[in-house]
Amino acid sequence: MSLSNNQLKLITSLRRKKYRNLHKLFIVEGIKGIEEFLNSSFQLHSLFTTDETIFQSYSSTVISETELSQISALKSPNEVLGIFKIPEEKELELKDLTIALDDVNDPGNLGTIIRLCDWFGVQNLLCSLHTVDCYNPKVVQASMGSLTRVSIHYVHLSDFLKKLTIPIITADMDGKSVYEFSPPKQSILIMGNEANGISNEVELLANEVISIPRFGMQKETESLNVATATAILLNEFRRKR
Amino acid sequence: MSLSNNQLKLITSLRRKKYRNLHKLFIVEGIKGIEEFLNSSFQLHSLFTTDETIFQSYSSTVISETELSQISALKSPNEVLGIFKIPEEKELELKDLTIALDDVNDPGNLGTIIRLCDWFGVQNLLCSLHTVDCYNPKVVQASMGSLTRVSIHYVHLSDFLKKLTIPIITADMDGKSVYEFSPPKQSILIMGNEANGISNEVELLANEVISIPRFGMQKETESLNVATATAILLNEFRRKR
Prior knowledge:
2 copies of one chain form a homodimer. By secondary structure, the first copy, chain A, is α/β, with parallel strands linked by helices. The first copy, chain A, has helices spanning about 5-15, 15-25, 30-40, 65-70, 105-120, 135-145, 155-160, 200-205, 225-240; strands at about 25-30, 45-50, 60, 80-85, 95-100, 125-130, 150-155, 170-175, 185-190, 210. The first copy, chain A, is elongated and about 60 Å long.
């Protein structure tokens, strides 16, 4: 067996959000990642591999290295590529802590934040409608299978927040030190866009603004990257739980 | 004026460590980054710009957009590219907290860690000889000018550590919880390689091993990325100071 033209066209189209949404499919690459999706509630659509001994209990199409490099989004393709179905969004049930992203653009940042939610036991991640798509291949790659364990919901963020009754906390450079902050029993923590931070409409809805103290003396120091800031704040919320 | 063949050859060669070390030069791209290096103790070698109104007080070569894209290491080149001299390593004087990296490979991770050291006031960053070069264009890009404020020293890590009398602390999955850990007045914290963690020779020299507690229930969760783990641990060391 090898790759048909239709398969080639379908798979490469899935690098774009428009076609992922149209076909309700997304790409996972590499043995470890695919294994995690196979062992989750995600449904497999098709599997392509250069080595027929991999995933023998699933039906797969054996393809050449050249074919794999044609369908892979990676610089160094990794023996196997799987197509999975995009599941229906689960019903959202807020737990003690929810993270929300206000237009996070970078796929690597979203992937890292999904992994952090998994590590720190945050079940729900809310994304504003302009946040990068969580089924983008680079996000799937960076999230290392954590996508199978964190529920991600795309919402109109300010409209959603207006209906909430739990405290809304935003992270911003000029907020109160997180060291002097006691996390409420239930809350939603919002992280902003890489360049612009929290948007004005969301800022207006915040009950509290927190920040990470800077210890370096130089004022020129850029703000922390949104993924590293999320790491520090999640750790602060959890250790005080 | 435009770009000579010799200049083109020199600049593109600087993407490789071998030629950076040979010429003792490295590349900085973008107005903001170059501004920070110009305002630091780093010495400018040459400046190339597509807009003659930028950095008028410095002598620069005006080049075309096409020429800039030839010499730029970025996908979307950014008006100006500067070549700076690699300074002599400063004499190392250990402060209260030093970070050391045991073969960190990814340029984005090193850049983020340099930025974190800057934020948390860590003056010295030690890198094992196999850690990615801090003058790699991707590291310079990711460190956002923090490279001008953090002293980076490449050393044979285990030999260096053997001579130390201050506590050596390593970060590892099966260490003691950092929440139960009190940072000594002076110490060195070592972060390991992305795939393999701390090397055996370094592990043998550790006085204490610390870890970041996982709150998620699933054991499948990958360990945290080295840059996000560094963020959390630096925050823990500093807030307890």
